[in-house]
TrEMBL record:
Molecular function GO terms recorded: methylmalonate-semialdehyde dehydrogenase (acylating, NAD) activity
Entry protein name: methylmalonate-semialdehyde dehydrogenase (CoA acylating)
Protein species of origin: Rhodovulum visakhapatnamense
Annotated InterPro entries: Ald_DH/histidinol_DH (IPR016161), Ald_DH_C (IPR016163), Ald_DH_CS_CYS (IPR016160), Ald_DH_N (IPR016162), Aldehyde_DH_dom (IPR015590), MeMal-semiAld_DH (IPR010061)
Gene3D superfamilies: Aldehyde Dehydrogenase, Chain A, domain 1 (3.40.605.10), Aldehyde Dehydrogenase, Chain A, domain 2 (3.40.309.10)
GO biological process, one term: L-valine catabolic process
Keyword Transferase found: no
Length: 499
């Protein structure tokens, strides 16, 4: 049995708490490693060392910091296959999807190479007679990221890239389900020239998270994961006086208008609903066809496409559309929700509950499942299933479809499929959801825009990556400077007007 480590002060460090969690190969359903779960003392020691390393990193000029990230990008490309293999073996997603996971993180690192431009600050010449005013963006100090299992490369990089580019030290607490890739990222950053202690990876569970939340040296926390944990971290982090942004769960609706290209809509739904076994916060989990006829046509197009999906282990390479879910508990939860949907009276068009694959009988596979005539009071509609299950809610009108998406408690992503520009514009303008696709099923913004949901999908202000990340990981200091030209005035006792 392989024992994984933490990565502290530039070295792999064995856990000392005596507590471990099992890391599975979800395709085989077998434990392949143990990850140490850090104690409060281990987390506090890593934070203390990061606090010592941070001033030196902050004093390194922004261009030199960016060069470390530039080299990191080269190393990520060099090791792409190795990273994807490790990622797939612990997460279960296909190899092409694992490469996409690394790639979407890498693109944020590429964006961060432009940090010197984003950190330039602002300057007003002659704001008053002989007075200049300038604003600086300064790093916060030691900041932390707490990340989910479903993107073990991308989301840690979304957090660490901007934080490090801004001159902070960074504590990463990755998911205990697939911790190998975050450790590999730390190794690569060290190889790229990042000074020891500036990035610390501490593996763990609630104990490690609470240690981060309560440590006074931690200035800011970026979290991604499920909504109940997001709310907990936001509340406790804020009450401890930290800057906190938390991104939570989702239930993304795709509205299909009667005028949509139905083949295009069905193709999009199959990819967005079942890709990565539905374990994406931007997965489409609810299709909302407008009108009975549209719904019938959509279901007719969807069924043969879904029946053709190839479900299997990542080792099948390109020959598989999606893999297992992450753990036995995740599988049991998804199957339980499908049972619940049947009991609640939804029409089960395709049933993935009895899926089995020869040679992988113990794997955590769930076959593709399609529900029709789901209603908004059902648990399968209200809950994030996070599995390969697509629900169809039939709406009579566009307004009703829009209302469903708007009334749902989550507000991460959404999409509309239509040929009508007026409807699409109206949808984009009125919808209360953070990321919107128009004939695009998974509208994940690129690195130089920002990513974030509304309602119960996001807590705190400012989004991830893009310019917002540079605001989140810095604080602004504004200096008003006067260099008198020789004429000395007496003291002033009122606010000076800039005339
Ligand atoms: P999770 O909430 O179980 O875990 C996320 C992190 O929180 C992990 O590092 C975990 O160790 C930690 N954690 C878990 N329980 C905790 C507790 N009781 N106290 C303190 N920390 C705890 O989420 P997950 O299952 O790893 O990820 C899936 C969820 O993440 C889904 O809900 C998905 O929608 C969401 N997600 C959201 C986004 C987004 O940007 N909105 C992106 C990806 C995933």
């Amino acid at each position: 049995m392989k024992d994984l480590t933490h990565f502290v002060n530039g070295q792999h460090t064995a856990g000392t708490s005596g507590r471990f969690a099992d890391v599975y190969n979800p395709a085989l359903g077998e434990v392949q490693a143990r990850v140490p779960l850090a104690s409060k003392a281990e987390v506090d020691a890593a934070i203390a060392a990061a606090a010592e390393a941070q001033p030196g990193w902050a004093a390194t000029n922004p261009q030199r910091r960016a060069r470390v990230l530039m080299e990191f990008v080269r190393l990520l490309n060099r090791d792409m296959d190795k990273l994807a293999e490790a990622l797939s073996s612990e997460h279960g997603k296909t190899l092409p999807d694992a490469k996409g996971d690394v790639q979407r993180g890498l693109e944020v690192i590429e964006f961060c190479i432009g940090a010197p431009h984003l950190l330039k600050g602002e300057f007003t010449d002659s704001a008053g007679p002989g007075i200049d005013m300038y604003s600086m963006r300064q790093p916060l100090g030691v900041v932390a990221g707490i990340t989910p299992f479903n993107f073990p490369a991308m989301i840690p990089m979304w957090k660490m890239g901007p934080a490090l580019a801004c001159g902070n030290a960074f504590i990463l607490k990755p998911s205990e389900r697939d911790p190998s890739v975050p450790l590999m990222l730390a190794e690569l950053l060290q190889e790229a020239g990042l000074p020891d202690g500036v990035l610390q990876v501490v593996n763990g569970d609630k104990e490690a998270v609470d240690a981060i939340l309560d440590n006074p040296a931690i200035q800011a926390i970026g979290f991604v994961g499920s909504t109940p944990i997001a709310e907990y971290i936001y509340g406790r982090g804020c009450s401890n006086g930290k800057r906190v942004q938390c991104f939570g769960g989702a239930k993304n609706h795709m509205i299909v208008m009667p005028d949509a290209d139905m083949d295009q809509a069905a193709d999009a739904l199959v990819g967005a609903g079942y890709g990565a076994a539905g374990e994406r916060c931007m997965a489409i989990s609810v299709a909302v066809p407008v009108g009975e006829e549209t719904a019938d046509r959509l279901i007719e197009k969807l069924v043969p496409r879904i029946e053709k999906l190839k479900v299997g282990p990542y080792t099948a390479g390109n020959d598989v559309d999606y893999g297992p879910v992450v753990t036995a508990e995740a599988k049991a939860r998804v199957l339980g929700l499908i049972d619940k949907g049947v009991a609640e009276g939804a029409e089960l068009v395709l049933d993935g509950r009895n899926f089995s694959l020869q040679g992988y009988e113990k794997g955590f596979f769930v076959g593709p499942t399609l529900f029709d005539r789901v209603t908004t009071d059902m648990e399968i509609y209200r809950t994030e299933i996070f599995g390969p299950v697509l629900s169809t809610v039939r709406a009579k009108t566009y307004e009703e479809a829009l209302g469903h998406a708007m009334d749902h408690e989550y507000g991460n992503g959404t999409a509309i499929f239509t040929r009508d520009g007026d409807t699409a514009r109206d949808f984009a303008s009125r919808i209360n959801i953070g990321m919107v696709g128009i004939n695009v099923p998974i509208p994940v913004p690129l690195a130089y825009h920002t990513f974030g949901g509304w309602k119960k999908s996001g807590f705190g202000d400012l989004n991830q990556h893009g310019p917002d990340a540079f605001r989140f990981y810095t604080r602004t200091k504004t200096v008003t400077a006067r260099w008198p030209s020789g004429l000395k005035e007496g003291g002033e006792f009122h606010f000076k007007q800039m005339d």
